[in-house]
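Entry for the shared binder. Reason: the reviewer on the internal report wants the predicted structure included alongside the sequence.
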Amino acid sequence: MNITHWQDSEVVLKKWGILPIDNVPKDVIDYLNNNVSDEHANSILAGHIKEEYSYKDWPPFVENFILSNINSEEPTLGQWLGKNKTLSKNVPLYLKSLWVNFQKKHEFNPLHDHTGLFSFIIFLKIPYNLEDEDKFFPQPAGDYSTSRLSFVLTDYLGDVFELKLNVDKSFENKMIMFPSPLKHMVYPFYSTDEHRVTVSGNISLLVE
């Protein structure tokens, strides 16, 4: 049985404090696919992507699923949650913002981070094969960048490096969650005219 790129990424992601979630419920996926608003989100996002739209008035089951993946017992995100217990009383988390990116060929998301405590990406549609993408800029050492989602991290020596994820069709209907200050970017793809569709959002503390 061949290991998919998603399966290959799961262990690596957890090592660097990024939580892979492969059980996004069908009702959540259906809602995200069928309830995009016509309100552009470009003015509040860093992406060099023309079609970015906000979701409005999402139902409780969407927010409940997303928040259910965060708890202090979960080692991948629990450490970051513990570091941010700066208030004198327990304060609930809430889904502050939710939007969708319809990324076209040649568009990209530059290096950026997010507001809030945690952020996430749900992969709805990945229209290309990595083998086709890699033909555009062959790399003898195999360090491909085309179409990759890349997180910028530091290793135990303090050296900066890119954790490039081989996002392909095996990521569809799956999700990753990470601390909002974690810088990341998405390189452009070239091999298809179809959209790469991803949903992102930010989770914050509900402080009145």
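Summary line for the report: Helices lie at 5-15, 26-34, 60-67, 75-83, 130-134.
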